[in-house]
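Protein in question reproduced for absentees:

***
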Amino acid sequence: MATSITMPKLGLAMKTGTVGKWLKQEGDSLKKGETLVEVMTDKITNKIESPADGILLKIVAAKGTKLPVGGLMGAIGEAGEDISAILAASPVASGSADSKEKVKAASGGIVKTSATGGGKVKISPAARKLAEENDLDYTLVGGTGPEGRITRDDIEKALAEGVGTPSDDRPTLKVMPYEGMRRAIGENMLTSWTSNAKVTHHVSVDMSGILALRKQINEGLKDKDKISVTALLTKAVARAIEINPAVNVTLDGDNIKTLQEINIGMAVAVPDGLIVPVLRRANEKKLTQLNEEIKDLAKRGRRNKLNVDEMNGATFTITNLGGYQSVDWFTPIINPPEAAILGVGRTVDKPAAVGGEVVVRPMMGLSLSFDHRILDGAPAAEWLAVLIDLIENPQKMFI
């Protein structure tokens, strides 16, 4: 009996997924558990295994197709087996009475609107303006609005994907497709950059106290148990939000909500880009718990072993470039629907004025980017002052 290959539910929060690269072709033999196809969400890319032994009889959802959880991607069975019953249930392959819906299903929800035969392209004024400002040929863009109308979101996505721009034929060292995690990151960052009123506060903070505390805590501990600077900084951020929740807000329609839970997103570099696993209720956890969870999430994240739920629900994010020893300050991009993100730079010995004397101290760069629609500069600076005090007087984190 033939077996359906369906869009998996990779977490409680997942509702849709996008078909990535098929790792097998129609007609290939498969073993249950063998890697078959990539599935992408706006957070992660996962490799999906074959649900059964057999032959890959049909690829129903091509690369780039967006499907709801449970949507049909393909079918596995014996050679020559009838899979018409499976295909009949597919929104992509079924004979829907509405041809437009069939096109939308097959193309991930996009209805092509390019003008043909002198026809007029339907496009919103805001979308037309954005396209013209960026010299983009909007007749090459697919519209997702009513009757295929091109929206501003369609133009923003096209800009991120390079649609309507001339091909670059210069000699290259390497070519990689703009897809999967890289595309998801690009689209999310572009949306954030164009939709938020961004402001960034930069400051240097003395790390003497927190480094001394770390040394004291780690004395006699095995390497695997030693507390990281990242764990201490996360503890400081969570405590700062407890004291002053100004940055723990979100814009929900016409309401600005101050969130009760303090869930810290932790940006982690992976070979294909960047992921942001979440430390839930970080303020309620002991330092040792945070340390263990940070190591676990980072390790599993680099191995692509996290699920969607573990990367959803952050209320504030930390992104740390300090380990590269090349960046003092930068402008991190906010992860919507969060209102702020903290960028951490390198720690470098620098001269500092202390008690009227110039001394050398380990100074670290901090960059707080925030959405000025929700958070003004003064309360953002006040929150940053609380964080600086906790870092420079780390014993206060535990009071």
Remarks:
- The first strand starts at residue 3 and ends at 6.
- The first helix runs from residue 84 to 88.
